[in-house]
Amino acid sequence: MRPQLRVWTACILYVLLGVTVFQSAAQPSTCTTLVTQALQAVGQNCQGLGRNAACYGFDRVDARFASEVEESFFSQPADTTPLDELVDIQTTALDVEQSRWGIAVLNVQANVPNTLPGQAVTFLLMGDTQVQNDVSADEALVVGEPVRVVVTAGQRVNLRGGPATTFNIVGNADPGQPFDADALSTDGQWVRLAAFNAWLSRSLVAPLTAGESLDSLPVTDSDAPSPMQAFYFRTGIGAPTCEEAPDVLVLQGPNEVRVRLSVNGAEVELGSTAILRSAQESFSSLSGSPVFGGLVSGFDPVGDPACLATELALVEGDALVNSESALHIPLGHRSRTVTCLNEDSMPVFTSPWGTPELLTEEDLSALGYVETLPLPRPVTLPSQEEIDESVARGPNVKPEPTLLPLIARPTRVVPTPDPSRPTATAAPQNPNGPTATPEQVSNAPSCDGFRATSPFGPVSEIVQFFWDPARNIYGYQLEVSALDDGDRIEQSTQLYRIGSTETNYTLDLRQFFGSGTSFFGNGIRWRLQVLILDANSNITTLCETPYTDNDYQR
User: Fold this and answer.
1) Inter-residue long-range contacts of 168-171, CB under 8 Å, 24+ positions, other chains counted
2) At residue 81, does pLDDT exceed 50?
3) 340-344, 520-524, 531-535, range with greatest mean pLDDT
4) 438-551: which CATH number, 2.40.400.10, 3.40.50.720, 3.40.30.10, 2.60.40.10?
5) Eight-state DSSP code of residue 546
């Protein structure tokens, strides 16, 4: 059950209302000195923080835990705590006279797979900022090492949004396609695919490595979140006294992963680095705001409830929000949402994120402090060219979970004498030892006899590809592109993974030339690649057929 939210003192919305207010510090040099000292200390105190943990960065940080702790627990800089024990955490606004500026660091696994060792989502709380964990200890799923599995079915299979056939289809997988499984359903019949909101029937996969078992995976009945993957937060109750020491929450995820988070009840898929602010205000004041009024216009509450007005600004990468409409927030833009609470401080209304707004030069300049923060990856404020590129590109080429699924062309590797790499012409040799045995030769991957046998003439909507098999391999990959008068339409290229025991594959070419595509070609170009695993278990190409061109007859 969602924990009750703590109600915070009402505050003026300053930056969130579009009015940037900074008061010059009485001693700006003293402020700069303290900020520099604090950021350096955080970099040292929280270095090497593990996943699903919080670090007391700089004085002062207050925390509340799910169970009793010793008086000295999490009371000094460099102290750490597991996230699943943390109820909420509060950092302190800048106080130059007391040499205080609260900073805390959280490392949240979220949906970052264990195939990215050590990487997580960094939460950097600065100044007057409070974050409350919305994932209770009994709901949280702390995943262990995943099990690499491959699809063993002889045809394309369905990925579903939950562990049953009653859930909708959210994607497909091809024979031989690898995934990392990180959880089992409660009935043990479905596996969850790491870093994907998808499940696959256990009967359709098998561990890639002999001796591994899916029974070692944790059990969950849903896409269970990790600690702090869902949270509520608020920032500053007044104007900051020093531009270099804002009251904000900074989030940074790995480059290669879209991080799924619930922020004040609103879903976000974050592509990289964002700066968040959230102020508490009454519904009546928000409904009259030119910034937030449109977001709460559909809500007719009883009385005048407290609401959280939240703003997210992208300084690196981009984000996807509003899952039903998949709204894209480009780099250098911001978006807002509102969550209102009832008398029991429980959320009763959450608006969709609003239309993204371009950050002005003045806005970006005010965010310049982000370039000095002790984040895992340094951030540089984006140029106008980078912002324009993100807008033009849209969400289509944003980061996807690294490695899996491997629906990307493997690097073609020409066989070499390297003893660790199988070749099509000879068995692996040990330069410091005897020649490979006949058994090793017979078990070595080989392209001997491998060749494409069909089609070599005109093709229609449904086409079958046939080939003579290679031996002792990982699988095959079919590459197909549309042709327009003999010229390949590059953006039409599709890759299909096929199991090692298959010798044919059926493809519906209407996905290239149907009414729902923008391709108006008159042919296809295809080739078949033989895939193996190298010494580091990476997929690579052992050999491939030449490209073949076929006319397409509608």
Assistant:
1) 170/197, 170/198, 171/196, 171/198
2) yes
3) 340-344
4) 2.60.40.10
5) P
Q: What's the rounded mean pLDDT across residues 113-141? A: 81
Alpha-helical (H) ranges within 336-412 are: 361-366, 384-393
Beta bridge partners of 489: 482
**In the predicted model, is pLDDT for residue 221 greater than 70?**
no
> Which residue, among 268, 382, 277, has the nearest Cα to 327 in the 3D structure?
268
Please tell me the predicted confidence (pLDDT) of residue 516. 54
The answer, yes or no, to whether residue 45 has pLDDT greater than 70, is yes
Could you give the 3-state DSSP secondary structure of residue 530? strand
Residue type, 426: A
Q: How far is CA 392 from CA 385, 386, 388, 403, in A?
A: 11, 10, 6, 26
Per domain, the residue ranges of the chain are: 14-140+225-371, 147-216, 438-551
pTM: 0.63
Going by DSSP bridges, is the β-strand pair 230-235/259-263 parallel, antiparallel, or unpaired? Answer: parallel
CATH number of 147-216: 2.30.30.40
DSSP class per residue in 48-109:
T--TTEEEEEES-EEEEESS---TTTT-STT-EEEGGGEEEEEEPPPBTTTTB--EEEEEE-
- Residue 367: CB atoms within 10 A of its CB come to 17
Among residues 352, 350, 308, the alpha carbon closest in space to that of 327 is found at 352
- 3-state SS track over 273-330: EEEEEEEEEEHHHHHCCCCCHHHCCCCCCCCCCEEEEEEEEEEECCEEECCCCCEEEC
- How far is 473 from 445, CA to CA, in rounded Å? 5
Q: Is the distance from CB of 114 to CB of 143 less than 8 angstroms?
A: yes
pLDDT given at position 259: 86
Reduced to 3 states (helix: H, G, I; strand: E, B; else coil), residue 501 is coil
Between CA 394 and CA 411 the distance in angstroms is 27
Q: Classify residue 223 as exposed, middle or buried by CB count within 10 Å of its CB (0-12, 13-18, 19+).
A: middle
pLDDT tens column, 426-455: 333 333 433 444 444 456 788 988 999 999
Tokens encoding 240: 């900051």
Q: Which residues, listed in sequence order, are joined to residue 483 by a DSSP beta bridge?
A: 488, 523
Q: Please say whether the beta carbons of 529 and 544 come within 8 A.
A: yes
